[in-house]
Specification:
Distance between the termini: 43 Å
Shape: elongated
Number of helices: 6
Strand content: 5-15%
Strand order of the largest sheet: 2-3-1-4-5
Length: 171
């Protein structure tokens, strides 16, 4: 039995693809639905993706010194929270994103400087913040605009940076 949201979705699909659906064989539709359910089950079984696994491996090397700090940039807030869930059991993690108010952002920078090993940030941290107390940056997601990468690097490659800046780009 379809609930209201399923019925609305079915109506929308029939309106958009009605002719194709009407001409398709029911057995073919059932087979495709079965394949889609199988794909959904495979996706649900993934607990950590290969890119995040690689990040964990790299962080284990980067953070052998407990005083070291790593800034991780991502494009999407959802990715930021996903990485926070994965990294928080092992590392002291703080986050920085555009939905935070100014005081929360300032506190996140202070926490990163004073106590956190890892800061995960969206583009909101790409401008106007001085993070030269950190010299390792990971671009977990690469933006289309190369100037955004330069802005990200500019957060740690600043006057007062005492160590060689290390940048890791994940693709």
């Amino acid at each position: 039995m379809l609930d209201d949201s399923d019925a609305e979705e079915l109506d929308r699909l029939l309106e958009r693809y009605g002719d194709a659906i009407a001409s398709a064989e029911p057995a073919l539709i059932d087979m495709e639905i079965g394949q889609l359910h199988a794909l959904c089950e495979l996706l649900d079984a993934i607990t950590i993706d290969s890119k995040a696994q690689r990040l964990l491996q790299e962080l284990a090397n980067m953070l052998q010194n407990p005083e070291e700090k790593v800034l991780i940039f991502t494009q999407f807030t959802e990715t930021l929270f996903y990485l926070q869930r994965i990294l928080a059991p092992t590392y002291q993690v703080c986050i920085f994103h555009g939905d935070m108010d100014s005081a929360e952002k300032d506190q996140a920078v202070d926490d990163f400087r004073d106590t956190c090993q890892v800061m995960i940030a969206t583009e909101a941290a790409g401008e106007g913040r001085n993070l030269q107390f950190c010299h390792i940056m990971v671009n977990y997601d690469l933006p289309w605009n190369p100037m955004r990468i330069e802005q990200r690097i500019g957060r740690i490659d600043r006057i007062g940076q005492r160590l060689p800046v290390e940048i890791f780009n994940f693709a």
